[in-house]
Amino acid sequence: MGKAGVVVGRLQLKNPVIAASGTFGFGAEYGEIYDPSRLGAICTKGLTLLPRQGNPSPRLWETACGLLNSIGLQNPGIDAFIWDELPHMKDQGITVIANVWANNIDEYAIAAERLSESLIDAIELNVSCPNVSGKGLLGEDAAETARLVRQVRRACEKPLWVKLPPTGGSAVARAAQEAGADAICAVNTVRAMAIDIETGRPVFANVVAGLSGPAIKPIALRIVYELAAELTIPVVGIGGISDWRDAIEFIMAGAYAVQVGTANFVDPLAAVKIVAGLERYMSEKNIDDLGVIRGSAQQ
Fold this sequence. Notes:
By secondary structure, this protein is α/β, with parallel strands linked by helices. It is 31% helix and 19% strand. It has eight helices and 16 strands. Strand 12 and strand 13 (201-202) form a beta hairpin. The longest helix is centred in the last third of the chain and has 15 residues, at 270-284.
C-alpha cells in the first residue's frame, strides 16, 4: 500500500488523494496526461438510474477565488457506466467510488444495489447537489438522511460514504453514521448565484448553483474539524484543496482522505502533484504513517 496508504472505513487506498465527483469524469481525459491509478481513487461524476442531459448552458461561471457550476448531473446512466466506463477504469487499476444521486429514497436503494453488484469499490451517496431544480437538500434533514442510509445499507454490500452539504451539520452526520455509513464526505459545494449585469438576470437557468474552489476552503476545513471531533467513522475532506499543503491541513483537522475538484480545472496535474507533495512531506518529516498527524490540530 505504501507509506502514504490509508484505510477509510473498509476501503484501502494507496494514498489519501481522491479525484472529486464531477471534476474528473471517468478518468479517460486525464489518462492522456498521467496514469490516474496513481491517485488513491476516482470518484465518478454523479450517476443516476437513467441518463440525464443536465442543465442548459451556461453551466460554469468564474468568481473571485472560486467557480460556480450548474451542470445538473449530466451522465450516461448507471447501466451505461457499468458496461462502457467501469471496465476501462478497472483495467487501469483505478479504485472507483461511484457517486450516486436519485429522485427519492427507493431510487437510491435500487441504484446502490445495482452498483454494489458491479466492480466498483465504494458508493458515495450524493445527498447535497445544489444545482438540481425542484429539490431541497436531503442532506439537511437528519431523519430523512438516516432513513436513506438505512435503506441503501440493506441493499448495498460495498463501503458506503455519504456526501453532505456545508449546511448539513453534525446532527445529519451523526444520523448517517448511526444508520450505517462507513464514512462522511464533507463538504459539497456551497449554494450560491451570479447575476449578469447586461441582462439583469441570474446567470443560471436554475438561479442557484454550487460554489467551489479556494473560496470555500476555510468553511470546509472548519466543518471537517468539527465532524472529526464528533464522529467515530472517518471523514473525507472536500472543498478548495489546491495543493499538498491544503491536504495536510485537512488531515491535521482529522480527515482520513481528501477529494480534489476545482483544482483539476486550473491544473490538470493538480491531484497527482498533491500526491507527490504529500509523499515528499512525509519523507522530509520522517513520517511513516499519516495517522501520526491525523487530527493533530484537535489536540
